[in-house]
Amino acid sequence: MTIKSRLQIWSIGLSAIVIFMVTFAATAVARAAIDPGYNWFYNFHSGLCVSVPGSSTTSGKQLWQDPCVNDKNFGWDPITGFDGTQYVIRNDNSKMCMAVQNDSTTSGAPIVQQGCSNLSNPATDERFVITQAGFYNGYGWAVYESNHSGYCITISGGSEANGAYLVQGSCGSRSSWFVFVAPGTSMPCPCTSAVNAHSAPESPVPPMRREK
């Protein structure tokens, strides 16, 4: 084997190592663990969690559902303190808030992330009222109703597929049932029926952090 051939092989091997290291580093960044105080936002019907596609930090990015992982992109913090019945929901990775796109009052309008306007007095499209849906399968499920439109956060078309987008729609569908749970929790869904029903707990969600 000539010196030139050996150099070419060495160069190819070095390139492969560099590519591996870059890929590994990118994966490590993408899989930064969810911070304390943030939770999975888990859907009853699909058994999937809400996240931001591609870990985007772009305002206006529509949210979707995906298999739950301990990744900051899947972390959500429901915050109150400005009103006793309303919440904003902030993402751990982007630090942006869930909102109804363009403050729409139309069914099917996308649920997106956008810069949190003011946690002491949030914009109307970022405010959600949490209402108990029922205590089933060991958890207290709730619907998250836009204070402005009267529609609830739900999965487009009632889909159970990875990558299905969030929209606002009917509050009567079980695709609009969600629960906040700690990352890594073993959950019982996807669920097609509300089995093991019990009386509802006092609160539809875990204790919330109040921020003024």
Task: Walk me through the structure.
This protein has 2 domains: about 1-30; about 35-200, Trefoil (Acidic Fibroblast Growth Factor, subunit A) (Trefoil). The strands form 5 sheets. The chain has a 5-stranded mixed beta sheet with strand order 9-8-5-4-13, with no helix packed on it. Strands 1-12 form a two-stranded antiparallel ribbon. It is about 15% helix and about 30% strand. With about 210 residues, the chain is an alpha+beta fold. The longest helix is centred in the N-terminal third of the chain and has 28 residues, at about 5-30. A hairpin with a 5-residue loop joins strand 4 (about 75-80) and strand 5 (about 85-90). It is built from 1 helix and 13 strands; from the N terminus they run H-E-E-E-E-E-E-E-E-E-E-E-E-E. It has one helix at about 5-30, and strands at about 40-45, 50, 65, 75-80, 85-90, 95-100, 110-115, 130-135, 140-145, 150-155, 165-170, 180, 210. Residues about 15-30 and about 195-210 have low confidence and may be disordered.
Which range best describes the helical content: under 10%, 10-25%, 25-40%, 40-55%, 55-70% or over 70%?
Answer: 10-25%
| Level-1 CATH class name of the largest domain | Mainly Beta
CATH architecture of the largest domain: Trefoil
Question: Ranges with pLDDT <50 over ≥5 residues?
Answer: 16-30, 196-212
- Main beta-sheet strand count, sense and barrel state: 5 strands, mixed
Category from helices, strands and their pairing: alpha+beta
